[in-house]
Design goal:
The chain has helices spanning 9-24, 31-42, 57-67, 84-87, 124-127, 129-136, 171-174, 188-198, 212-224, 229-240, 251-256, 263-279, 287-298, 306-311, 315-325; strands at residues 46-50, 72-76, 88-94, 100-106, 113-117, 138-141, 144-147, 153-158, 177-182, 257-259, 303-304. The protein is an alpha/beta fold and 329 residues long. The protein folds into two domains: 1-81 and 109-223, P-loop containing nucleotide triphosphate hydrolases (Rossmann fold, 3-Layer(aba) Sandwich), CATH 3.40.50.300; 225-329, Helicase, Ruva Protein, domain 3, CATH 1.10.8. It has a five-stranded parallel β-sheet. Strands 3-4 form a two-stranded antiparallel ribbon. Helix 12 (263-279) crosses helix 13 (287-298). It is globular. The mean pLDDT is 86.
Length: 329
């Protein structure tokens, strides 16, 4: 590993544990979602959180900004939101001498951590305004490009597609998200804990445990972790088997999948596997690390056909079939 990185694996693990514990102190239950958000953030990737209203998605993102001491911005997506409301616009400014000049007014996208709340309630034109920002970490207004601050992370919340007043995200935009995490309804014990915390004394103030430069250092360290060739081939084989025309794809994929995962899928599997290995205190990426990342990394990248929709087959079920059919060799 690069000796120039002033961060050791043990320090990485300790700081990541502090971040996860700080989030868990506010977010009741949802341990899988909290771990998934942590992995995606340390990978420098964007996250799509899907779940019904009221499950704490917005609170999770807001708390993450406080824990990491990042500039936080929230964009509430609505059908009447315009692209300039996100990226900013150029306006005419007059100085004291009466001279008029064009000046760019940055929009809320210019922050380290951007919460795109209910992103699927905006029209496709407005959703597309996020594409360049998510991929290139910059926005272009009036043919002038403006870089976004680093780290730049978009955490978008989404109501389930079948709810009224929503617009499904296009596949090209879904592919820009590192993980898609499903926020599930809390258990009975978690509901009791939520009621006790939110109806009593004010919640304690969250203390920052890291900052932007630390996140960038942790991301750089994770990328330095080596991966054995068999593990790389295993990740690639999983993504290849998500395509219905692949030679080794299982019957469920051939029957229910229209399009498989893109190369960004294998990138997400490998990078998430590296971070999971570091979180577990290991300097080698195992097959189990790749398998653990398969569902959040691929569920939004596998496009199902009409037959799957008619029979109620989910992308998670398809991923289960792919993992069962892909040998660890």
């Amino acid at each position: 590993m690069n000796e120039d990185l002033d961060l050791t694996p043990d320090e990485f693990r300790a700081r990541a544990r502090e971040i996860e514990e700080a989030l868990a102190a506010v977010i009741v239950g949802q341990q899988e979602v909290v771990r998934g958000v942590l992995i995606a953030v340390l990978a420098g990737g964007h996250v799509l959180l899907e779940g019904a209203p009221g499950l704490g998605k917005t609170m999770l993102v807001r708390t993450l900004g406080e824990v990491l001491r990042l500039d936080f911005s929230r964009i509430q997506f609505t059908p009447d939101l315009m692209p300039a409301d996100i990226t900013g616009t150029t306006i005419i400014v007059e100085d004291a001498a009466g001279h008029k000049t064009f000046q760019f007014q940055p929009g809320p996208i210019f922050a380290h951590l951007v919460l795109a709340d209910e992103v699927n309630r905006a029209t496709p034109k407005t959703q597309a305004a996020l594409l360049e920002a998510m991929q290139e970490h910059r926005v272009t207004v009036a043919r002038v490009s403006y870089p976004l601050p680093e780290p730049f992370l978009v955490l978008a919340t989404q109501n389930p597609i079948e709810m009224e007043g929503t617009y499904p995200l296009p596949e090209a935009q879904l592919d820009r998200f590192f993980f898609k995490l499903t926020v599930r309804y809390p258990s009975l014990d978690d509901l009791v804990d939520i009621a006790a915390r939110t109806t009593g004394a004010p919640a304690p103030v969250v203390s920052p445990v890291a900052d932007g430069p630390m996140v960038l250092r942790m991301t750089a360290l994770a990328r330095e972790l080596p991966v054995a060739t068999p593990v790389l081939r295993y990740a690639a084989h999983i993504v290849q088997n998500s395509h219905p025309d692949a030679p080794d794809s299982p019957p469920a994929v051939r029957r229910f999948v229209r399009y498989g995962a893109s190369p960004r899928g294998v990138q997400a599997l490998v990078l998430a596997g590296k971070i999971r290995a570091l979180l577990e205190g290991r300097l080698n990426v195992a097959f189990a690390d790749v398998r653990a990342a398969a569902h959040p990394a691929l569920r939004h990248r596998i496009i199902l056909n009409f037959e799957a929709d008619a029979e109620g087959v989910s992308s998670d079920q398809i991923i289960d079939a792919i993992l069962a059919a892909t040998p660890e060799v």
